[in-house]
Amino acid sequence: MRFRHPDGSTVHLAYCTNVHPAETLDGVLAQLRDHCEPVRRRLGRDRLGIGLWLAKDAAHALVTDPSALRGLRTELDRRGLEVVTLNGFPYEGFGAEEVKYRVYKPDWADPERLDHTSALARVLAGLLPDDAIEGTISTLPLAWHTAYDDDRAARAHEALTTLAERLDALYELTGRSIRVGLEPEPGCTVETTADAIGPLTAIGHDRIGICVDTCHLATSFEDPHTAMDALTRAHVPIVKSQLSAALHAEHPHLPDVREALAAFDEPRFLHQTRTATSAGLRGTDDLGEALTGDALPDASPWRAHFHVPLHAAPAAPLTSTLPELRAALTRLVGGAHPLTRHLEVETYTWQALPPELRPRGRAQLAEGIAAELALARDLLTDLGLKELP
């Protein structure tokens, strides 16, 4: 979906296909047929943006076979779909029964991460619509914090510097500008937008910036306006933003709130949980740890890294951080000029919701994703953006 900003520029809105796990190119092609095109049809659009997630095997197939890449581009066109952004965070196995800590491997100190992201950039350069001025890729925020020392930090810095050089070379070769954004996430070396400023200014390249995920922003209790202002002052480019909402519990000390939270403690994904105290932010790696004993203070609200559907906040006594998403979006695209032109709804947890909230079949999933995109569309038009055909 495309929107015209009041300044005349085009803002793209997509949804991320990591909600439809696939490890191979055949699986990606099936996603377009079985999921993405039905979402487009439900929205009544001739064209729909998707943020592709390409696992390592699918990316390898595309980057080593030009005919396969042309075939994917043709299939996108045929189904009324377009790609300007990729989710390069998960490397493989995102549809496994247990993902948890595995999603942070390989990290930016491992050569596989550089090779994979370089491949994604080459693929994206071949998938961009003819009239798109740039493509973007979100990626792991360096590493999970426990696996990071000075040696690995130096290797990660070197890898990102090499990536910047490769992106420059890709532009010279293709005329396509591809930018990559570190995506701060609780528990990682770069947990907050503030954590990103140091590493990104050290690299000092406008093709390497930040991806602002509004669920992660809210989970860490970051004020959206303060965060965006700091990034702007530091000249850190916001290459894309993922529009998502976290799980919010206002009174986590109450038994009924604990019971409601326990329904979201599922085994597939990591749900980092945070609370803001007078002594600073406190947290646990997963929601189950927070619910066990006194691992996390419960005198103040809790937020958990659980991407809940934008249009369907959990039932009381829980809610979502949709208000924080609204505030972030106002700052991102509500000003005289947008801070980013690539927005992506990323709710990959549909099948991890409590059983009674999960979609029953493809049709219900398509309906839910379309409803999320419709809400995001309404938020954008409320800010003065005009939806384009």
Description:
This protein is of the alpha/beta class and 389 residues long. It has 12 helices and 15 strands. The chain has helices at 25-43, 56-64, 66-78, 111-127, 150-174, 193-203, 214-219, 224-233, 255-262, 287-291, 322-333, 362-382, and strands at residues 2-4, 10-16, 48-53, 81-87, 134-139, 177-182, 208-213, 238-243, 245-249, 273-277, 280-284, 302-308, 318-320, 342-345, 386-387. Strands 2-3-4-5-6-7-8-14 form an 8-stranded parallel β-barrel, surrounded by 7 helices. Strands 11-10-12-9-13 form a 5-stranded antiparallel β-sheet. Helix 1 packs across helix 12 and helix 4 (111-127) runs parallel beside helix 5 (150-174). It is globular, with a radius of gyration of 20 Å.
Topology:
Layout lengths: L1 E3 L5 E7 L8 H19 L4 E6 L2 H9 L1 H13 L2 E7 L23 H17 L6 E6 L10 H25 L2 E6 L10 H11 L4 E6 H6 L4 H10 L4 E6 L1 E5 L5 H8 L10 E5 L2 E5 L2 H5 L10 E7 L9 E3 L1 H12 L8 E4 L16 H21 L3 E2 L2
Parallel strand pairs: 2-3, 2-14, 3-4, 4-5, 5-6, 6-7, 7-8, 8-14
Antiparallel strand pairs: 1-2, 1-15, 9-12, 9-13, 10-11, 10-12
